[in-house]
Design a protein that fits this description.
mainly alpha
Length: about 30
């Protein structure tokens, strides 16, 4: 389960240069 979450977060960082932190990604991306 946590591996999937990490993959999703890494994907967001790869696609969105405006993403600054893991906390921001977890609280603002669906």
């Amino acid at each position: 389960m946590f591996n999937r979450i990490k993959e999703d977060i890494d994907c967001v960082f790869g696609r969105d240069p405006a993403a600054h932190s893991v906390w921001e990604v977890m609280t603002t991306y669906p």
